[in-house]
Amino acid sequence: MHEELENFERNHVRDLVEPPPNRRPIGTKRVFGNKRGEDGMVVRNKARLVARGFVEGGDRYEETFAPVARSEAIRILFAFAASKGLKLQQMDVKSAFLNGFIEEELRKALYGLKQAPRAWYARLKSFLLKSGFVMGSVDKTFRGGDTLIVQIYVDEIIFGGSSHALVSSFTEQMSRKFEMSLMGELQFFLGLQIKQGLEGTFVHQAKYTRDILKKFNMGDSKPMTTPMSTNTALDADEDGEAVDQKEFRGMIGSLLYLTATRPDIQFAASPRTSHRQAVKCIFKYLKFTPELGLWYSMGSSLSLRGFSDADHAGCRIDRKSTSGTCQFLGTSLVSWSSRKQASVALSTTEAEYVAAASCCSQLLWMKATLSDFGLKYGRIPLLVDSTSAISVAKNPVLHSSTKHIDVRFHFLRDHYEKGDRELIHVVSANQLADIFTKPLELQVEGVDNALIKGEIESQWTGLIALLV
């Protein structure tokens, strides 16, 4: 608490005055918390004076959000840094929001004010631009100088440079302007555990996995070798027994966060008993493989490619198809998706075409983002296991038979004709996006658990290393 009050003085946050007439004071409260490291140990005790509500100021209150780096952009940085042999560093700004200026009748922003995140971001952005950085044209990532890259997530900053002098210079600049903490090699960021070695970078969430197993009383459950059986077919189950919705949604939310490093559980679970049982199977699989993660190899090429697949009419409730896509930067898996399509596809061709369009859209965003890293691309391979879907994109004769497909999906055809996408047929056995459209079982019989676990890990190593 004393440190927080000292920060108020150093940042000239407030003046103690009598409340002016006809003004409503802002309520505040003290919030205490702990910042923990990857091992679960307390790194720092934190105390915050948090405001309740917002400062009245008419139209100036409309903009409150603060841009942050997307998860795909963070993984792209991991892959890029590993490929180039850059050692990523991290820093945390102490009492970051107290550094933000707001237009209303306060000197500085306070924690709890809805304007505070954007006010802090505006000041940091202004400082970095004046320091010679260039803001990313797509993602709000900054870069500058001779390969010095900075990514921002509120008050947590990760950065890496091609030389020690660049990194040291940036660290000194930030330290002179703001009070910093937790400066050093990147090891724990947004719940991700990062291990940077001589051969590459490994990103995982083993601690978080164990935490949620304990939270939902699954720590002593019997492990399973797959997250979902191929015989599982979930439907509305309207006659099934209802379950605790709060617990069920908590389990789903926990798993959604875990998919940041676990694409192997991306395709899996009206909360009914059958649905909860399916979710518990995923937790049992996590008990079996708690330390799986993403590997970004040093020296990997930075070529860009995508895979797309679809499960036609896979949903038993509304018969909508599931699109599965994944995108690689060299050998590094940096983006993936498994989601139900917005409309019912009338054929496998249509479902595959829609999935390919979704993958094309993500590749377009990644290409623009990577241009901020100084990378340029020509024809980007998009691998589809449906020759008929490729024909729809290539053959103008088929245009009249696809008028019912939403116009937004036809930009796949447009980009093929422009020559910046190369549609390639890939056999199903090599379709890496297959894991995002249907449950896959490990075909190992009569083998003990240790060998099965090794086989799972080798499959993921193959997934990342395939088609280099």
UniProtKB/TrEMBL annotation:
UniProt-annotated stretches for the region Disordered: 1-31
SUPFAM superfamilies: DNA/RNA polymerases
InterPro entries (alphabetical): DNA/RNA_pol_sf (IPR043502), RVT_2 (IPR013103)
Top-level lineage group: Eukaryota
Domain Reverse transcriptase Ty1/copia-type, residue spans: 106-229
Composition bias, Basic and acidic residues: 1-17
Name of the featured protein: Reverse transcriptase Ty1/copia-type domain-containing protein
